[in-house]
Design a protein that fits this description.
The chain is mainly beta and 631 residues long. 5% of the residues lie in helices and 45% in strands. Among the domains are: 105 residues, Immunoglobulins (Immunoglobulin-like); 217 residues, Lipocalin, CATH 2.40.128; 113 residues, Immunoglobulin-like (Sandwich). Strands 8, 30, 31, 32, 33 and 34 form a six-stranded antiparallel sheet that branches. Strands 12, 13, 14, 15, 16 and 36 form a six-stranded mixed sheet that branches.
């Protein structure tokens, strides 16, 4: 539902889970009521509305048979095949189609019969990026694809060994993508919630694009998650009712979305020490990665704004060790928790503003060393053009509190591989690693000296954004992919999984949003019965669990949103003076016009029908919109 009130735009949208449930119900109803057999199947392209390179094929067979599906590639080594379990009713996800062509899909029954179906696809979503260059071999990739998660004006995508996009999502699912044990993907929700990039929660999504569950969280989701052996999820979050962010971790119940346990980084030690160049009192730690190590029953957490990886006990939350440059830290912390370099100390480098900490099977620690500033002292900060980023592996001895650098890749490439933010590493086996430098930015062909490449202007021909993904085996580069945009992380996966199926049945939205903080004092304003000026371009988007107010306002003006129902009112202050963004890890939500602001208001915590009014400086305007809240 949508309509226009003079000078105000309003629309009501269903959650994507609701839309997908309706889509699945429609094609399953069509299948149930129709005569669809091996030679006359039902074919539905983009069955869950957000993966244009996926389809579903539905048909019946008289006898139980298994089915092998092969999506024909541009050559035989680009074929993608999957065998599905024995049944008489077959609902088959078709993955790995090419854009804008008549894809040939072979279906073979275990009884020996074959047929070929043509599936026609359209254009990719506008923000899905094409590979600029790729160097590898099909033998090395062995049917696997490289998936990337969006950080700039781009979308999640997966590319085969030729660099062809064979998978994408049309919605901006953010931050990390990890495959769960059941074959589905875990990724940040497509629903932006709070400045600068926090999402409502995390989603479990099939490769066909179906959201099985969205786990909403009161403190929202950012950066990373980790699946435990029992299926429950470690998720990075925060508490928006205090003055710091990105300094909490919770354990989510996989079935209910309930929070089972939480850890608070704030309180482990003083916040105003060990500062990186991007430190702020609001975002003092900036936790961007979590890793659970079963051997030590501990959690490793990457704190970008203190150039530190910390390790805490899973049960007690107590600090075990701290990995980073000890310069500027209090002596009592250094003596108790920090490591001393050993081995080839002349070639040893600490990591700075790192991302993606990984615990190797032998206890070594890997991370992406962004190298931003590459010093704890301002007078020693490096220019970006003189800096480097790299993947690095450290060997730590927690008894002797010693550290040795045993491997690195990227320093030798200098500024051409330099990412001051985002990026990740992967450990595959001894000597076999992936290093993804996802935030490379150039101005006039040199590393940008802007604080973050997210602020580069895509319309300026002298500004360039890149990501480079490299895999190294026994010190030989086996894979290298260049993309003309910035991507948060990369992950190499098979498109199909052993457990792949359609996961039929209604998707669920679990957990809850928080109660949006209100403002105690309402500004005095002359009340008008008219709507604000069209210049503000106000839009109101209502969803099942929240609504979003957005518009354009001059910097520094007083802006408040008021919900009124008789004597009951709820009032929200909206800042029109942006907080400096020292860590824009996902720029997907950035507005081209910095006068545009928005506020997402959760419906959690109250109920009723409310008039929506807005205070702009000295006047209170009636938008004419009513918001219905049913708890």
């Amino acid at each position: 539902m949508s309509y226009n009130i003079p000078k105000i735009s309003y629309k009501r949208i269903d959650h994507l889970v609701t839309q997908q449930n309706a889509s699945e119900a429609a094609f399953m109803k069509q299948f149930a009521e129709g005569e669809y057999y091996f030679d006359t199947p039902l074919v539905v392209v983009n069955p869950y509305l957000i993966n244009p390179l996926a389809a579903v094929i539905l048909f019946r067979t008289e006898q139980p048979v298994s089915i092998t599906v092969t999506v024909k590639g541009k050559n035989s080594v680009a074929n993608i095949s999957k065998t599905f379990d024995t049944a008489t009713e077959h609902v088959l996800p078709i993955l790995g189609l090419y854009k804008e062509c008549d894809n040939k899909v072979e279906i073979e029954l275990s009884s020996g019969e074959k047929s070929e179906i043509t599936i026609t696809t359209g254009k990719l979503p506008e923000l899905t990026q094409e590979v600029a260059n790729i160097v590898t071999t099909p033998e090395y990739m062995d049917g696997m694809m490289m998936f990337v998660s969006a950080a700039g004006k781009s979308l999640p995508a997966g590319y085969d060994h030729n660099g062809d996009c064979r998978w994408t999502l049309a919605e901006n699912f953010v931050f990390d993508m990890k495959r769960a044990a059941n074959g589905n993907m875990l990724m940040g929700s497509y629903r932006y919630s709070r400045v600068p990039y926090h999402a409502t929660g995390i989603c479990e999504v099939t490769m066909a694009g179906k959201i099985i569950k969205e786990y909403r969280m009161p403190g929202n989701y950012h950066h990373d998650q980790f699946e435990m052996e029992d299926g429950n999820l470690l998720v990075l979050t925060q508490d928006f009712h205090r003055d710091t962010v990105e300094d909490m971790l919770v354990l989510l119940d996989r079935e209910t979305g309930d929070i089972l346990k939480s850890w608070d980084i704030r309180g482990l030690y003083p916040m105003n020490i060990g500062k990186s160049g991007s430190w702020s009192d609001h975002d003092w730690f900036h936790c961007n990665a979590v890793w659970y190590d079963k051997t030590t029953n501990s959690l490793s957490l990457s704190g970008r704004h203190q150039d530190i990886i910390i390790n805490i006990d899973f049960e007690t939350g107590e600090l075990n060790w701290m990995l980073g440059d000890p310069e500027g830290w209090p002596e009592e912390l250094v003596e108790k928790y920090f490591f001393t370099p050993v081995g080839d100390v002349e070639n040893f480098d600490w990591q700075y503003e790192q991302h993606a900490c990984v615990v190797c099977p032998d206890g070594d620690i890997m991370c992406f060393d962004n190298g931003h500033w590459r010093s704890k002292k301002k007078e020693n900060y490096l220019k970006n053009k003189d800096n480097f980023s790299r993947g690095v592996r450290y060997r730590i001895n927690t008894e002797k509190m010693e550290i040795e650098q045993v491997w690195q890749f990227g320093k030798e490439r200098g500024q051409r591989f330099y990412s001051p933010y985002i990026s990740n590493v992967e450990y595959y086996d001894e000597g076999h690693y992936m290093v993804h430098s996802g935030g490379i930015g150039y101005v006039d062909g040199m590393a940008s000296e802007l604080l973050l490449p997210a602020f580069l202007d895509p319309n300026d021909p002298t500004h360039e954004q890149h990501s480079v993904t490299v895999e190294i085996k026994d010190d030989v580069v086996m894979y290298e992919m260049h993309l003309p945009s910035q991507f948060y992380r990369a992950e190499k996966l098979h498109l199909y999984h052993d457990n792949d199926n359609m996961c039929l049945g209604e998707g669920k939205v679990l957990g809850s949003l928080d109660v949006t903080p209100e403002f105690d004092t309402v500004a005095e304003a002359e009340e008008l019965s008219i709507a604000p000026s069209e210049w503000h371009e106000i839009t109101i988007t209502e969803e099942e669990d929240r609504f979003t107010f957005a518009g354009r306002f001059e910097k520094g003006c007083l802006l408040m949103l008021c919900l009124e129902n008789g004597e009951e009112s709820h009032n929200y202050y909206i800042s029109t003076t942006a907080r400096p963004a020292l860590a824009m890890c996902v720029g997907s939500f950035m507005e081209a016009d910095d006068r545009r602001v928005s506020l997402n208001v959760s419906k959690h915590g109250f109920s009723g029908t409310f008039k929506l009014k807005v205070i702009i400086d000295e006047y209170k305007y009636d938008t004419g919109i009513h918001i219905n809240v049913a708890e």
